[in-house]
């Protein structure tokens, strides 16, 4: 069964770059049916889609973060990554990586597998 | 961005009750609507995709309906493990957006 695991620092200083990696196990980032995405959840709040990427295509980003975010895929390591630049306290959140399944003959996409999430605090 | 509004924001119910949660989109999203359940300290879990298709392994007491702008998630007979927060999500257009959540609590 597919497993996703986030890794990266749990504390980042304001104005620096938040970098997280998601390692995919028992599955492949080159799957033709799937995109790979990042979602975040500030403490006690709702969910925000950050963006997603197909292994051979360009990423799609939330416009609210587009100027600061980069999502990339490393096929050799079976990983995908998130970089969020110039962070502030408002970026403090639990960050989830997830697999996004693109329906065939069924409308839409959905997040069918999630990592456990990692809390990243932005503080000096 | 498409705004997703859930109601109610919180709900108290008892084991065995039938409950319905509503999700409304700010514009038509056809059937591009998913439902997730989240327990405290855990990642969300997919329940229903494409408005009414049950994800593999999800109990049949969960059901979804709707199209266009109005959608519902129904739990036919609440079980103790169903007390959690529920989110809807639209995948009609990016950025994909979520409802604010409905917290289902034990009465």
Features:
heterodimer; A: 124 residues; mainly beta; 7-stranded mixed sheet; B: 107 residues; 50% strand
Question: Can you describe this structure in just a few lines?
Answer:
By secondary structure, chain A is mainly β. Chain A is 0% helix and 52% strand. In chain A, strands 2, 4, 5, 6, 9, 10 and 11 form a seven-stranded mixed beta sheet that branches. In chain A, strands 1-3-8-7 form a four-stranded antiparallel beta sheet, with no helix packed on it.
Present the secondary structure layout.
The complex is a heterodimer of chains A (124) and B (107).
Chain A: E1 3-7, E2 11-12, E3 18-25, E4 34-41, E5 48-53, E6 60-61, E7 69-74, E8 79-84, E9 93-102, E10 109-114, E11 118-122
Parallel strand pairs in A: 2-11
Antiparallel strand pairs in A: 1-3, 3-8, 4-5, 4-9, 5-6, 7-8, 9-10, 9-11
Chain B: E1 4-7, E2 10-13, E3 19-25, E4 33-38, E5 45-49, E6 53-54, E7 62-67, E8 70-75, E9 85-90, E10 97-98, E11 102-106
Parallel strand pairs in B: 2-11
Antiparallel strand pairs in B: 1-3, 3-8, 4-5, 4-9, 5-6, 7-8, 9-10, 9-11
């Amino acid at each position: 069964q597919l497993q996703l695991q986030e890794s990266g620092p749990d504390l980042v200083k304001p104005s620096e770059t938040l970098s997280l990696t998601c390692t995919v196990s028992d599955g492949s980032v080159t799957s033709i049916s799937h995109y790979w995405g990042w979602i975040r959840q500030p403490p006690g709040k709702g969910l925000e889609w950050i963006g997603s990427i197909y292994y051979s295509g360009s990423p799609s980003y939330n416009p609210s973060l587009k100027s600061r975010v980069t999502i990339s895929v490393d096929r050799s390591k079976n990983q995908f990554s998130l970089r969020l630049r110039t962070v502030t306290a408002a970026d403090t959140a639990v960050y989830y990586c997830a697999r996004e399944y693109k329906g065939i003959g069924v409308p839409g996409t959905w997040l069918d597998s999630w990592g456990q999430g990692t809390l990243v605090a932005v503080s000096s | 961005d498409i705004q997703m509004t859930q109601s109610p924001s919180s709900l108290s119910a008892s084991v065995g009750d039938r409950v319905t949660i509503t999700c409304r989109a700010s514009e038509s999203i056809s059937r591009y609507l998913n439902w997730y359940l989240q327990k405290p300290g855990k990642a969300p879990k997919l329940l229903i995709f494409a408005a009414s298709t049950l994800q593999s392994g999800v109990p049949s007491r969960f059901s979804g309906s709707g199209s266009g702008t109005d959608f519902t998630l129904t739990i036919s007979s609440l079980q103790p493990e169903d007390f959690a927060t529920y989110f809807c999500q639209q995948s009609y257009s990016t950025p994909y957006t979520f409802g604010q959540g409905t917290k289902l609590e034990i009465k």
